[in-house]
Design a protein that fits this description.
This protein is of the alpha/beta class and 487 residues long. It binds glutamine. The site of glutamine has 13 residues, from loops.
């Protein structure tokens, strides 16, 4: 592969700024890399080659702009984020051919920071899934082993970054969809605090859980992308009006973890972890101790209720959010329908895949009169208690550490026949969303048995992304993560 595409976002941005390479050269190198790897990896739903080269031509003509921190850097965007004049399918047939007339705020902010929109990434349909096998188009492969899944639902973003097709990507995380693929693909993934990044222009799945965040090859790269997209947006009433700290300064000269207390939730460490995951994550925690951190055991007693709670709240919100896809306003419309009702039913039946339909039915059920109190209201109450659990744990320490997932990436097809088994993969990630807290996956693998990447999950207090980045950065310099896959 071209040496250029292997560089980190921070390295390429420095080369671009000093004109050692042009923006067009960098984008061309990425396009060549996509051409070489995409037939095997299948990470992308559409590639904006022409538009990207047009953008870089204009950037090069104007010259590097120090006011634009991502000047000339090609990035990939999960296909759940609206991109002006570029396809946005959410991995669903129902949105085939849909081209939004505006950019999501996060995308607009990347563009105004000088980034180049390279491609839209594959995903589980409407972000529902943990493997990217639920895409209505094709399943993405894990660049470390093509027989294995990349994780999901932001698996296209994860695989693309790991395969060095781009220098970073945006993913979205409702219950783990940034952290899980980051962990399976051996990259860094950061789900910000709920409200830190505007959700305007993100097609909603579970509105009270969804967040957009960076997926990159290094912690510093994640800090740069987060810095560009974070901050209040008047078009999203849930985005919080609170100053954005200087994330780069936070990681700048930090090599030690002295003074930091890391909480190890017993429920995460003692629960049926694959030995190689326990080992790699355990070694990373030892390393943190060697760097000066103190560790304490903490409890998240309600962890065992997290999956049930999440799958009630997320499906309830999804059933309401997905009502807008009715064959009238967007995308697919069944042409043979005999009546208006028939058109709604046929368009939704043919347009949505099996998992999406399952969740709409489940969500409608838990919200229906007679069941609302038993399911939805109860779940909302348990959610509050889960949040309190985290607050109590985080009053004894500065951040929590544990595995992202009990296993490393599994084989394609291994879980598709058993949705419940698949839901269990989210056991360690979904509580973070229920509590609205920031969470991160840092590569600490490879696993001794499978040779596949392992991710350590760090969870922080609300709006304390700076501390997460700082700790992850210090650890990153000292753990033997896996690098990039040979392909
Ligand atoms: N796997 C979880 C689900 O299917 C999480 C998905 C996500 O974070 N978007 O709901």
């Amino acid at each position: 592969m071209s040496e250029l595409t292997r560089k980190s976002l921070s390295e390429i941005r420095a080369l671009l700024a000093e004109k050692a390479v042009s923006a067009s050269e960098v984008t061309q190198a990425c396009l060549a890399r996509i051409e070489a790897t995409e037939p095997r990896v299948q990470a992308l739903l559409s590639v904006q080659a022409e538009a990207a080269l047009k953008t870089t031509k204009a950037l090069d003509a104007a010259g590097p702009d120090p006011a634009k921190p991502l000047w000339g850097v090609p990035l990939v965007i999960k296909d759940v984020l609206c991109t002006k004049d570029a396809p946005t399918t959410c991995g669903s047939k129902i949105l085939e051919g849909f081209r939004p007339v505006y950019d999501a705020t996060a995308v607009a902010r990347l563009k105004s920071a000088g980034a180049v929109l390279l491609a839209k990434a594959n995903m589980d349909e409407f972000a529902m899934g943990s493997t990217t096998e639920n895409s209505a188009y094709f399943a993405t492969r894990n660049p470390w082993d093509m027989e294995r899944v990349p994780g999901g639902s932001s698996g296209g973003s994860g695989a693309s970054v790991a395969a060095c097709q781009c220098f970073g990507a945006l993913g979205t995380d409702t219950g783990g969809s940034i952290r899980l693929p980051a962990s399976f693909c051996g990259i860094v993934g950061l789900k910000p605090t709920y409200g830190r990044v505007s959700r305007f222009g993100m097609v909603a799945y579970g509105s009270s859980l969804d967040q957009i965040g960076p997926m990159t090859r290094t912690v510093e790269d994640a800090a740069r992308v987060l810095a560009a997209i974070a901050g209040h947006d008047e078009r999203d009433s849930t985005s919080v009006d609170r100053p954005v700290p200087d994330y780069l300064a936070a990681i700048a000269d930090n090599k030690s973890l002295k003074g930091l207390t890391i909480g190890l939730p017993a429920e995460y460490w003692d629960r049926g972890l694959a030995p190689e995951v326990a080992e790699a994550c355990g070694a990373a925690v030892k390393q943190a101790e060697a760097l000066g951190a103190k560790t304490v055991r903490v409890n998240l007693r309600l962890s065992e209720y997290a999956i049930a709670t999440y799958y009630i709240i997320a499906t309830a919100e999804a059933s309401s959010n997905l009502a807008r896809f009715d064959g009238v306003r967007y995308g697919y419309r069944d042409k043979d329908a005999a009546s208006l009702m028939d058109m709604y039913v046929k368009s939704r039946t043919k347009g949505f895949g099996a998992e999406v339909q399952r969740r709409i039915i489940l969500g409608t059920y838990v919200l229906s009169s007679g069941y609302y109190d038993a399911y939805y209201r109860k779940a909302a109450q348990v959610r509050r208690l889960i949040r309190q659990d985290f607050e109590a744990a985080l009053s004894q320490c500065d951040l929590l550490a544990g595995p992202v997932c009990p296993t490393t990436a599994f084989k394609v097809g291994e879980m598709t026949s058993d949705p419940l088994q698949m839901y269990l993969m989210d056991i360690f990630t979904i509580s973070t969303n229920l509590a609205g807290l920031p969470g991160m996956s840092l590569p600490v693998g490879p696993g001794r048995e499978s040779g596949m990447p392992v991710g350590l999950q760090l969870t922080g207090r609300a709006f304390d992304e700076a501390l997460l980045l700082q700790a992850a950065h210090a650890l990153e310099q000292n753990v033997s993560a896996a690098g990039t896959p040979a392909l």
